[in-house]
Amino acid sequence: MVKKKFSGDIDIIRELLEITENLSHNKDIVSLLDNILYEARKFTNADAGTIFLREENELNFSYFQNDTLTQLDENNKKFIYANSSIPINDESIAGYVANSSKPLLINDVYKLNNKVPYSFNDSFDKQSNYSSKSFLTVPLITSRDQTIGVMQIINAKDENDQIIPFTQDDLMYVSFFANNASVAIERAQMTQQIILRMISMAELRDPKETGAHVNRVGSYTIEIYQKWAKNHNIDEKTIKAYKDVLRLASMLHDVGKVAISDTILKKPGRLTDEEYDVMKTHTVHGAELFKERVSDWDKVSSEIAIHHHEKWDGTGYPYQLKGEEIPISGRITALADVYDALISRRVYKEAWDEKKVLELIESESGKHFDPEVVKAFFSIYDIIKAIREKFPDKE
Ligand code: C2E
Ligand code: SIN
Ligand code: SIN
Ligand code: FE
Ligand code: FE
């Protein structure tokens, strides 16, 4: 990562405003956080970073980047899906910044002055073998003066890749950028909320439970896509743009279930043939919701709704499409959905054990599933497991 050279303050501000403007194009909260961290790190030439978002009185570990660790092993990206939260109080660095709503510069987190109230939690370093040193931690404050989270930028580097402290200028500009980014985060959170409500209405189930299943399917789908796309030499820009629409679209795969009666949808036992035929229409009903097709997002959502039960060998529904006739979004969501359906409990079935699920997926490669998608899935299986742990079903 090469530090940008600026000729002066005005240029810096102009650049930051331009970056902010681009953030407003992100629809999806995950790709938005990815971009925000990336830009803040590029600006300060920092190796790593974390975004925490506030959930009631806690900070939830929400996004993570770390060049050193991900270059070693791409499955280290699983740390993105770490399921941890910290209380908002003065005991941790991020908690202190959220509490005070003021930015904080630390040159070496292992040499904290003993007068400060906070201490550094080294459990991540221990777990991952990483060496944290310089920190720049800024609050994420919205235009209504609410602190919605904290961004932490870690290990600034000089031209020789040596870790150096962040500067006062870094602090000033990153804070400015963080304020603008917060507005975009708030908007993306609202979009996500609206979509989750729509889904919970469609499935007429406990919104918490629905949320977990669709969050998992959405996250599996973008991670499998990213791996598949890299295997197919698709360029980074296309991957990023597609991921931005793909997660929300995949979360909506079953939204057509809104048209299926409760007696069928929630039936505890096996469906009769007639009931199953009705159930199958959730695919076409889902696609109807997006038939205006105004944006990329409508297009991909429609594709996934209609094609997520097609099979690679042409024996699926509703159109018995075969192989690459099925859009990639549908081929990936099909695997993500079946994996999650098998490994979880459903009203009509118990959870299967993991070994049995993975054997089924393997044996369906080239039949139900696209072999290339199956390959991508297995090569990022650590990330898949981390996603499951991040979004557990509520009892
Ligand atoms: P779902 O629960 O999300 O399941 C998605 C897909 O996972 C299923 O698509 C199927 O391909 C796979 N799957 C789920 N459970 C099993 C299983 O026990 N064995 C195998 N081999 N595959 C499984 P499918 O079959 O087209 O079903 C679509 C939707 O229809 C399901 O979504 C579920 O909502 C409903 N459904 C299917 N079968 C039954 C049933 O016997 N009883 C009830 N109440 N609903 C069912
Ligand atoms: C990254 O860690 O930089 C990539 C994360 C993502 O695109 O999901
Ligand atoms: C789903 O949420 O996709 C499955 C609904 C169910 O059968 O419990
Ligand atoms: Fe479905
Ligand atoms: Fe589903």
Overview of the molecule:
- The chain has 395 residues and is of the alpha+beta class.
- The protein folds into two domains: 181 residues, Beta-Lactamase, CATH 3.30.450.40; 185 residues, Hypothetical protein af1432.
- It has 16 helices and seven strands.
- Strands 1, 2, 3, 4, 5, 6 and 7 form a seven-stranded antiparallel beta sheet that branches.
- α8 packs across α12, α11 runs antiparallel to α12 and α12 packs across α13.
- The longest helix is centred in the middle third of the chain and has 36 residues.
- The chain is elongated, with a radius of gyration of 22 Å.
- The protein starts with 8 loop residues before the first helix and ends in a 5-residue tail after the last helix.
- One fe (iii) ion binds next to loops.
Question: What key attributes describe this structure?
Answer:
395 residues, alpha+beta, Hypothetical protein af1432, 2 domains, 7 strands, 52% helix, elongated, binds ligand C2E, binds fe (iii) ion
Order of helices and strands: HHEEHEHEHEEEHHHHHHHHHHH
Number of contiguous helices: 16
The whole-angstrom Rg is: 22 Å
Shape: elongated
The major sheet is characterized as: 7 strands, antiparallel
Question: What is the class of the largest domain in the CATH system?
Answer: Mainly Alpha
Percentage of residues in strands: 5-15%
CATH superfamily of the largest domain: Hypothetical protein af1432
How many discrete domains?
2
SSE-based structural type: alpha+beta
The beta-strand count equals 7
- Level-2 CATH architecture of the largest domain: Orthogonal Bundle
- Classify the helix fraction into a percent range: 40-55%
Note the gap between the termini.
44 Å
Query: What integer is the average pLDDT?
Result: 91
How is the CATH topology of the largest domain named?
A: Hypothetical protein af1432
- Poorly predicted tracts of residues: none
